[in-house]
């Protein structure tokens, strides 16, 4: 272990000239002693805390624990805020602002005297956005996930925050839940600090960070209120100082092999479809070639080992007590690149050599998996020329090969206005088609793909139908839902040309999604198609619409792909 000849922060604090005086003197107003400016690694603590982001509301306290570790290791910690993305309240969707948050992270890191960075994350988009921003600067980086909530409770049973959301309509229509019942669930489903405790997107992102090698081992599943979360935070503070001394940059960790490992692990845990979009975007920032097809080729034949909602029975608290992600990594070694480097300098599998499983009902073995093949299926066909995705483990087996009549909704407002109309011509064999919810069309690609079924079908006992859109689905949700159709309807994709009564064929085993009309009819519809008016004419949203890429590229912005590095050529005076 050797200290670099010169720390990046020395360009700010280490010079004995006017600018060195300026930088140091203003920091003196906080009472910092001389040795804070004497060749000690400056660690930025990137905090996505906000009271508007309930999942991250405890990160202020966690930051103090990280600072303790940084100081113990001889570093100097400076906490800074960035755009926080609260999945539960932000309109029209946090996905619209993921790229904005990544820009905030990138430019804040680059513009300031930072040698290494700790990313404090939690809610869905806070993890990928901060990693994306850090990738574009390429400094030593470690992630500290905020952790899941404790299991939700309702009348003696465990329930999942997020997952229950998608059941409310069904519970009231079919199981006669009263408003009082729903209120009781509301007050008991999110009963501690932390993010959703299902294997939704937040938990998936924490597992993604760990499987990529960006966290200390075993951190992803630790509940937010468990004291061991603070322990890991303190150790992470110590470790980032050593990473700076070793010059262990994020680009040395995020190799192609690391991305392939993350795809395998995501399949084994039954992770969210949102994983695809975020991993593609991260790969685009760090410069690793990764395509939509890779997720099918690498991950679709991987066995499902983790029995968590929405694909299974248990929740993240149970997953942690069963041994957490290290158990899965150890069990899946034969599928993994075993020598990928992680933030502690050891390989991914070396970190998990001794990782016993304490509950095989929660984490199954490779020999007796919950499902022999999990992961994501990538569909192709005239309805999705650049691809679409479906999560077979969350779908109904009898619908994975199906031909049905399209019932089309031109927008989410059109859907809400008509879906429960008793006279709507729809039955359980139909295919619900929702347009206008892609990156450009909504804008921002919201989690509306798993739309509720019509009330009359729920009352009939129907629990699933095929739903197709250019939007996303919450990681806490399930169903036979085709997502991320690319190109999207609002830029002229074939999805925008579908009409009521068209026949659509879904064949997941054959990876096929097909609109059954003649080539002549399809060309005629293309010739008559008119683009909808843009959803914004100014501000960030206009900037987003003009530059966002399609789902098969990760919905990042074209001008944000790649890395600008950490160098800042010009001074402020």
CATH-derived architecture of the largest domain: 3-Layer(aba) Sandwich
Q: What topology, given as strand order, has the largest sheet? A: 7-8-12-11-10-9-13-14
The total domain count is 3
State the shape. globular
* CATH class designation of the largest domain: Alpha Beta
Radius of gyration: 24 Å
Number of strands: 14
* Unreliable parts: none
**CATH superfamily annotation of the largest domain:** Response regulator
Sheet having the most strands: 8 strands, mixed
Q: What is the percent of helical residues?
A: 25-40%
> Beta-strand percentage?
5-15%
Rounded to the nearest angstrom, the distance between the terminal CA atoms is 36 Å
What structural class results from the helix and strand content? alpha/beta
* Helical segment count: 19
- What CATH calls the topology of the largest domain is Rossmann fold
Average of per-residue pLDDT values: 95
Features:
573 residues, alpha/beta, Rossmann fold, Glucose Oxidase, domain 1, 8-stranded mixed β-sheet, 4-stranded parallel β-sheet, 14 strands, 33% helix, 13% strand
Care to describe what's here?
The protein is an alpha/beta fold. The protein has three domains: 272 residues, 3-Layer(aba) Sandwich (Rossmann fold), CATH 3.40.50; 41 residues, no CATH class; 157 residues, IlvD/EDD C-terminal domain-like (Glucose Oxidase, domain 1, 3-Layer(bba) Sandwich), CATH 3.50.30. Helices cover 33% and strands 13% of the residues. The chain is built from 19 helices and 14 strands. The strands form three sheets. The protein has an eight-stranded mixed beta sheet with strand order 7-8-12-11-10-9-13-14. Helix 3 packs across helix 9. The two termini are 36 Å apart. The relative contact order is 0.11. The model has no long low-confidence stretch (mean pLDDT 95).
